[in-house]
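Need tokens for this chain, all 113 residues.
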Amino acid sequence: MRNLMFLIILLLGSQSVAAKPFAFGMGQGQGPMLAENLLPSPRPKEGRLPPPAQRLDPRAAVAQVKQHYQFHKILAVSLIDSQGPTVYRVKTLSPEGVVKYVYVDGNSGDVFE
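Here are the structure tokens for all 113 residues:
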């Protein structure tokens, strides 16, 4: 009798699983779990690098400094050559005669001292 109940429960449980054969691994709005969906996207071909991020040119860096330091004269602009982010160093002269170096982020255009 015990074995018969176990068999009935086992059969009833397997029917509910059999009614939904692809339910495992599917969330809302997702298709079945396929190997192609799990693999990472292919790497770009060798020799082809992604395009570089947009970078400000020196004139745009000077324009950013002019907005923040309206009465200063611009004496020089140089690109800081490093392996980090692009940064311009702008040498300014205040109306009082003080020389000040201001830095501009070449990617975002942020001005900092």
